[in-house]
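>> Question from a student workshop board

For tomorrow's exercise we were told to take the sequence and the ligand below, predict the bound structure, and bring the output to class. My setup keeps failing. Could a helper post the expected result so I can at least see what it should look like? The ligand is adenosine-5'-triphosphate.
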Amino acid sequence: MSQDTPHPSARDAEIAIEQRQVSRVYERLDQLRGQAEAMRDRGYEMGHGATNEAVFEQASMLFERDMMVFHANQLLQALDSEYEGLVFGRLDDIQRETTYVGRLGVRDAEFNNLVTDWRAPAAAPFYQARPEEPMDVVRRRVIRCTAAKVQDVDDDVLIPSSVPDDMRVVGEGALMAALGKARGEKMRDIVATIQREQDEAIRAPWRGVTEITGGPGTGKTAVALHRAAYLLYRNRRQLGGAGVLVIGPSPVFTDYISRVLPSMGETNVELRSLGEVLDGSSSTRHDPASLAALKGSLRMRRVLKRALRAAPPDAPTEMRIVYAGEVLKLDATELAKVRKRIHSKITQPNRSRVRAAEILLEALWDKAESYVDDRFAPKREQLITDLGERIDFHRFLVTWWQILTPEQVLTWLSDRKNLASAAGKAFTGAEINALADSFRQAFDEPGRGPSVADIALLDELRVLLGPPPKRRRRGQQSPLNAPEEPAAGGRPANYDEYSHIVVDEAQDLSPMQWRMVGRRGRYASWTVVGDPVQSSWPDETEAAQARESAFGASTKRRRFALRTNYRNSAEIFAFAARVVRDIATPDELPNAVRSTEVEPRCELVRPAEFAARTVEAAREHLAEVDGTVGVITAMDRVPDAEKWVAAISDDRLRVVGSLEAKGLEYDAVVVVEPTELITETTTGPRALYVALTRATQRLTVICSEQTWLKA
Ligand SMILES: Nc1ncnc2c1ncn2[C@@H]1O[C@H](COP(=O)(O)OP(=O)(O)OP(=O)(O)O)[C@@H](O)[C@H]1O
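>> Workshop helper replied:
Here is what the output should look like for this input. Compare the format with yours to find the bug.
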């Protein structure tokens, strides 16, 4: 046995051994692809010529094979060469058996395993074995490839006493090598280096609610995505049909993580940001924190419910209809009573027009009855039938009991008077002004549209209002209560029920957003990922209650806490931790494992120098690191910062607002004026902590004062 730092030829020899295996796997994949393509072509031919039942039967068999081919092709496409290769691990056990671990399972023509899928039980020791509990593994090897070429190998010995004489051990830490690599546009998968505490969360059973907490950079997002891939692989029958939804804080984030699942051959998971959860609406615009807090609180739900019980602002305030020579009149107070009666039964207003017509006709009958004399003696049934068929009655009804859209309701609420009467005592005068202004800008003025917080209100209103009736085609029955038509593929038109939901950055969901998300998973199991110290939500109790209700029937809970920070260098994390020292318990601060011996820089300059210093720092960092560089500022400063760095033509450079930086990472980060990041949220230093912990290798802070930096 040779150990630790072997002669280069020993490493080369081991690389050559692994190269032979990797080449065999790729040859076998080529063969399988060839077979699959031939099968698909034959299937097409048979399908075209099918004229009788027997041939059709064959064709349907071939269809099944086609599906297999389709799946194989998808998988092959997904194995992008940019990722670390198909085979990434090898286990040698105490019986001298060898198991290769990879992104997918591949067998040779005799059905012997060439590679075991990382999600299969046989691959579990690759992640779970440790010296105290080696699970019969003598040597665990990480194989680093670029496409089909083996670049390096890295070993761990778990049972030193069982290493045979001819077994070579090489390398000094696959994890550290992976962590030291430059960050690119998109997050990479971590299949080759998943750590034991992470693996436990990934492989936890699918039912119920799995909560994963941990500080910045502990791999929560990576774990949640690998868990989605694992769950679909192991429970495709239960989870594949209704689908898996991953919810992240912003489209920049969902774009950043978009390659992780495809790189593991999983292309059927839907990724949505919080501003995109509601079909047909989409937003990336953030309200100021205090306004978002109002819109996100459950008080808003009460206001919306009350708003729907009021008459639409443009509804007629009087009804007059002539019947048998008599004018029947309902004034504003009487109409308000009728409206109240209609609402007394809990139904969605958009589904209640028939009920509205019935109760309005009853009120007209009551009125008529009070006019009865020798000359005017109507019959109840007759009056109701006659008026119910009259065009002028229907004209009144459609303006008085309107079919509403959620946007229309928020547009009314942009009028301070309407909002104040719906709000009652729920909000102060100043809060009502702020909300009304914001709704006006969003819904009454061209070009802005809803904010991210408004999307949850629109979704709430969608459910409170009910769907608009479908247009009736000739010969069809009344559409008022018609069931929703299924869309192509057997899913209902507005498909929004998933079997498993992953919520990332869960600490930031407002109660209203939890309600929106909860509706997507009434029967779902959940993976919920977050870090309370990064929370930007002010009322934690209300959010916790809303989150509990969102889980609905899913009562089974399991919790995993991740404690190692894999992202930041130890120097960067120690610096960032200083800003939350008063609000985080030591338990909540993870342990950063990688030292670069480069301390973060904090530069005190005058505001007039921000632009020049930011540009300089960005240029320096671009020269120092191979990967991406992020300039993070308060949301309001983003347009300025974009102008400052416009002259730098390097596509590794990004400018992001502090709220958009959630979940992202860059090799180097320049944070501008921390105090602005603190004051733009309601939770103070937490937003700054998020920004500082985005950096993997280098960090520069440019500021005009340093009160934010605790000693
Ligand atoms: N086992 C691992 N092997 C290699 N890299 C890892 C491992 N675990 C995490 N990482 C890397 O560490 C970085 C941080 O991971 P991730 O973004 O999932 O953390 P997070 O806990 O979601 O962070 P935050 O809450 O700060 O956004 C990523 O680059 C990820 O690839």
